[in-house]
Structure formats: structure tokens, C-alpha cells
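Key result, reporting period 2: structure in, sequence out.
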């Protein structure tokens, strides 16, 4: 009996000890979970830190530049040592006290921010722009293909050109065609996007885009909507305007850094030449201006033929259609051919008729009128 009582007592003590260990383990896990959650909660309560660049260090203080370009004289935390001008730091937002030095991202992955391609457009695929084509060949293609000829004659070709004129007249096509004819890398930048997306970093990105152009030479840097970067500046009131000016000055510095016979050429493109800053157009920069106009009556014929050559056409009077196309840009003539094809498909026709072209012309014209009305009403 005593032996049974002892065994029972041992069993109870073992069960109690096991339960005690299990409870202690559970308690420890719960404490660790609470501690982890408390740490996470503290992280959420902490204010965000601002990324700044150190301009100068003066004893225990520093001058920093914030992302919007403003500079401030601030205190350096005792935990942050060995600061140098050019370092990137984290500052608290209220007093901009420097908290911590962080590794500096010295280079953009610029290929994410530009369009890089090897165009395949041939000169024969561009109609009605013979004079403009000839000028681009002389200014861009010849120096890239035959630099020795210019050295022998003793003249320096322009570093770049400005294509200007109404939208849809073929400016981008001309730039891509000369890139294809010279087997150059085509690097396209949109000025408006550069200004809007990269406030605080525009000048840095411009510098690295041109470095990319040197690495991928022979190359052509095509700056679309260059007026967004290079418009006349009267006052520099806002931080955004100052940032645009910094980016513009970096662009001018890059243009000045190229030799006329280098294997990198710059082509600017704009619909608003009248608002450009004269600094971008002075000799040694984009000093060759090529106007790409709305097609003339004679130019409409080859443009229409290029865009309709693969279409199955019924017996049509092309001269009548050509007259209806007067005043349209090359892009609009292409749109007319596409829309005419759609009208034929909707009617399950195997050939495109004159009526399809007239309907397409009316549709494209109405769309243009609506866009102009909207622009006049809302700017």
C-alpha cells in the first residue's frame, strides 16, 4: 500500500514538473511575442527620417541640402562621426538634426528612365520630307560616318540639331531614321517626364544619361519636348522652377562637353521653338534648326502611298483623296489609312473603297477639331 502511494506521489510530482516547464516555456514565448510587437509598435510611432546631402561640415554642425534643393545649417548627432561633404545622411524632419550616415547611391540605373533601341526605320519609309532628310544627313550622318572628311576640309559640324514644327509631322521618325542609317544607339528622353518625375535628381540623371550615351557610342540622344527643360526663365520663385533651371544648366554643360566630331549626337525636338531659351540655340549647342512643316500638296502624295502600299484598295481616285488630306500632318494621314481599313473590316469588305477613306478623313478631322476645342477651353 505504501509502495502504491509512493508511486502515485511520484507520478503527480512528475506531472506537476512537466506542466510547470510547459507553462514557463509558454510564458517565455508570450513575453517574446509581446516584446516583438512592442518593438514593431514603436517603429510605427517613430517619425520618418529625411534623406539629405551634406554640403559642408563646420565643427559639430553641417550645411545640408534637402531633396527640394533648399540648404540648412543643422546639428550633428554625437552618434554620427566622420562626416564629409558629399555624404548622404538621415535627418529628423523637425530640426533636421543629422542622425545617421548612409551609403550613397552614386549612380542611377539610367536605363530604367530612358528608351534605348536600335531603330530599323529606313529613309525610304519617310515620305515628303526630302529637304529635311538631306539636311539631317549632312549634319548628323556624314560626321558620324566620315569624320575624316570634315577634318580634311577643316570645318566643325554642329554638335546637335533642333527639330521643330507641329505635332505629327515626322520629327521622331527623322531622328530614328538617322540613327538606323548610322547604326547608332537611339536614346530617347522626354523632357516633361524628366522634370516631373525626378525633382531633386534631374541634373544628376542628365549627367548619367550622357555618360550612358558615351558608353553606347555611336549614339544619338533624342530629347523630346525639350521646351519643358529649356524654356525661357524669368523668375526662379519656386523650388520646382529652381530644379528645372539646375537640370537645364546641366544639359548645357553636357552639350559643351562634347566635341563636334564625337560619335555622340544630340537631337532636340519641340512644338514650341518660340519659348526656348536662346542659350540652348547658340553656336556650339543645338545651333542647326530644322523646321518640319505640315505636308505640302506635293508631299501628301508620297506619304499617302507609303501608308497605303500594303492595303487592298478598290479602284479609287487618289487625287481626290489627296485634296481631302490637305492640311493634315503625316501622323494624321497614317491614321486616315488605318481608320479606312477599319471601316472596310466592319462592313466585311475585302477591299478599301473611296467612301471608306472619306469616312476616315471625316473621323480624323472631327477628332482634331474636338481636341482643339478642348485645348482652347481648358488650356
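The corresponding designed sequence is given below.
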Amino acid at each position: 500500500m505504501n509502495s502504491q502511494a509512493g508511486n502515485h506521489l511520484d507520478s503527480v510530482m512528475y506531472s506537476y514538473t512537466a506542466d510547470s516547464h510547459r507553462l514557463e516555456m509558454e510564458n517565455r514565448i508570450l513575453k517574446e511575442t509581446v516584446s516583438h510587437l512592442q518593438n514593431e509598435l514603436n517603429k510605427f510611432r517613430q517619425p520618418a527620417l529625411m534623406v539629405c546631402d551634406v554640403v559642408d561640415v563646420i565643427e559639430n554642425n553641417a550645411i545640408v541640402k534637402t531633396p527640394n534643393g533648399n540648404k540648412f545649417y543643422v546639428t550633428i548627432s554625437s552618434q554620427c562621426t566622420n562626416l564629409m561633404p558629399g555624404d548622404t545622411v538621415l535627418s529628423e524632419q523637425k530640426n533636421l538634426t543629422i542622425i545617421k550616415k548612409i551609403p550613397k547611391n552614386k549612380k542611377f540605373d539610367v536605363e530604367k528612365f530612358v528608351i534605348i533601341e536600335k531603330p530599323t526605320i529606313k529613309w525610304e519609309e519617310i515620305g515628303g520630307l526630302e529637304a529635311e532628310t538631306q539636311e539631317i544627313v549632312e549634319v548628323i550622318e556624314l560626321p558620324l560616318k566620315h569624320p575624316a572628311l570634315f577634318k580634311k576640309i577643316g570645318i566643325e559640324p554642329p554638335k546637335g540639331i533642333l527639330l521643330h514644327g507641329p505635332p505629327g509631322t515626322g520629327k521622331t521618325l527623322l531622328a530614328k531614321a538617322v540613327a538606323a542609317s548610322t547604326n547608332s544607339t537611339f536614346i530617347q528622353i522626354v523632357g516633361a517626364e524628366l522634370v516631373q518625375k525626378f525633382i531633386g535628381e534631374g541634373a544628376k540623371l542628365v549627367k548619367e544619361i550622357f555618360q550612358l550615351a558615351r558608353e553606347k557610342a555611336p549614339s544619338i540622344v533624342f530629347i523630346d519636348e525639350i521646351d519643358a527643360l529649356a524654356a525661357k526663365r524669368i523668375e526662379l520663385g519656386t523650388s520646382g522652377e529652381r530644379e528645372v533651371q539646375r537640370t537645364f544648366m546641366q544639359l548645357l554643360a553636357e552639350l559643351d562637353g562634347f566635341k563636334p566630331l564625337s560619335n555622340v549626337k544630340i537631337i532636340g525636338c519641340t512644338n514650341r521653338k518660340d519659348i526656348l531659351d536662346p542659350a540652348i540655340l547658340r553656336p556650339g549647342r543645338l545651333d542647326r534648326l530644322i523646321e518640319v512643316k505640315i505636308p505640302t500638296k506635293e508631299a501628301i502624295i508620297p506619304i499617302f502611298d507609303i501608308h497605303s502600299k500594303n492595303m487592298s484598295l478598290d479602284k479609287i481616285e487618289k487625287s481626290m483623296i489627296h485634296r481631302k488630306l490637305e492640311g493634315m500632318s503625316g501622323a494624321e494621314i497614317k491614321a486616315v489609312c488605318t481608320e479606312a481599313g477599319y471601316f472596310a473590316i466592319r462592313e466585311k469588305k475585302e477591299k478599301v473603297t473611296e467612301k471608306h477613306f472619306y469616312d476616315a478623313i471625316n473621323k480624323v478631322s472631327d477628332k482634331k477639331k474636338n481636341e482643339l476645342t478642348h485645348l482652347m477651353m481648358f488650356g
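The chain has a mean pLDDT of 84. The two ends are 104 Å apart (CA to CA). This case is discussed further under Risks and Mitigation.
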